[in-house]
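One such shown below:
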Amino acid sequence: MKYYVNGSAFISGDGSEKFPFKTIQEAANVAEAGDEVVVFPGIYRESVNPIHPGTQNQRITYTSAEPLAAVITGAEEIKSWEPYQENVWLCRIPNGIFGNYNPYTTFVEGDWFFASFIAHTGEIYLNNKSLYEVSALSQVLSPIRSAASWDPDFSIYTWYTEQDEEKNETVLYANFHGLNPNQETVEINVRRTLFYPEKEGIGYITLSGFQITKAATQWAPPTAYQEGMVGPHWSKGWIIQDCDISHSKCSGISLGKYRQPENDNKWLKWKFKDGTQTERDCICQAQRDGWSKATIGSHIIRRCNIHDCGQTGIVGHLGGVFSLIEDNHIHHINNKQNLAGAEIGGIKMHAAIDVIYRRNHIHHCTRGLWLDWQAQGTRVTQNFFHHNCLPAADDGIEPDMPGLGEDIFIEVSHGPTLIDNNILLSDRSAKLATQGVAFVHNLIGGSFTAVGIGTDNGAKTLSSPRYTPYHVPHGTEIAGFMTFLHGDMRFYNNIFVQQPVRPCMQKISDFMQGEGKSEWDDGNIHVGTFPYDNGYQLFAEWSKEFDGYCGLGSEPSDRYYMHLPVWSEGNIYFNGATPWKKEKNYFVDSTHIVTLSAEEKDGAWALHTNLYDVLPDFTIGTISTETLGMAFEPEQRFENPDGSPILFNTDYLGNHRAVHPCAGPFENGKAHFSALHC
């Protein structure tokens, strides 16, 4: 059955092409497995709750009749503004419009949210840009420019809210700086989710070609019910494709966790158990409740433009297992810097078991991709990362941990995690408070940070190691829990290029290596594998510790608690980038200066470099699953999700590699490379 929706229809009909429904929800109420819903162009101010699931062989498909012409929005336009003082205007909103969820009385809160940041889930938008909430009316009357914002000039467009209890109204004040809001497009978000089933298990749905924008979503930590504007809500087999997803207060797409009432934001609410322990409890409860490959995950997110969200573009814990995230453009996430916490990034995923991230373009995010816990069987391949960092301006930036970022953060995971054929150009390429990771054929223009640290829980005087789970290969069943020895890292056929250090990053690094020193981040800004100089051994050295009898009664030894070994070979270093002191078969070019830049022109991004004018003919040969071996703790190989081996014989562009391949992400670069366009 094919159903039609047209918001411009004179009256709602039966869903036929001649007599379409007026709302998408009317179609969602009746669409069943095998049905298609076609939505005509228009603005649909509704929250769609899909009622029925599809099946693996008979999906339910929701399609915009014209690409991006059907807009699902959580906002309402306001034309009742009244002058208040100078550039400040006032409006009153009857609270009845909000139903049982008022975004202007609901604060952003949850586990791992920095409580010093005061914000409501509501927003005010001026011509599709969200204004900056402040905590006092005086800050609307006399706004202060925010140096932490990526758009500091617009940060003086501020708003404040209060309640008129007597009239049961939400009162909004906003500074429009000379503009008349009744002559502009000014909206407020009133809906919490926009395409999200209320029930669990509504699987096998395809959402294609929509604009989805402006929702009052709540903070989405891994220990809570993780909501986004769009998401499958603990089900299997969704496809979200060719959509433009923007301006969620917190998260755009959620592949997250279901609600566990007794363990929802328990760290915030109960306090007596640390968040790390409540997260372990969440994982174990999910397994008892049926979390498995048969019932959860295997979603596809592809060719979406995801941008201007406050917390994440894509978030998930447990619910995103076995998924494919490909060909997306994810950018300008957390750019206002008015939300802060440990759950921010272009993508933030816990338990990305057998998830593949490929051919995504991720830039201008506080952090690009954050793989937290259980990045087991995860592969990050053929992605373009850049400008995932502090704001571009160097003036007025104070050392501020919430604003520090990198292209990829892998945290407290046992692996195997595979990072191959990527371009990593931000100040910091990877934060590696983890083990069991392989870097193969990447172009790395930023530093490695937090090597050997960041895996404890930060107790003041007592030991507080973080034990995290690992799983049976290619499954959700928990095989064990373990803390971190660090190491178990592989670096093969990468190119490292030290780029000029921005003054603000030097300032931050100096602070973090001095008075701001912590166990979470070392602030390293120098490029190369040298952070593994500190106590990391070759496999042959490490394995000697286990010679002879190692059981009860053997000679005391640190053999079971020392750093795991490191493998590094075939890498090339430019501009002072520095190899690990025990590295084998590497090349250091101390003659040429290599330039790297990601530049935008007419909406398209390009990588410009002279690298392939000076790249030497140097290689150790083709890398494969056999070369990489297995991650130590889970005893799982670096292999495909189906268990088959990987031969790294294709490059970033999909070109076949020679028998003696070129280091870095591009094969035949000397002959064919000029600029990579994204």
DSSP finds nine helices and 49 strands in the chain. The chain has a mean pLDDT of 94. Residues 75-189 form a domain with the Immunoglobulin-like fold (CATH 2.60.40.1180).
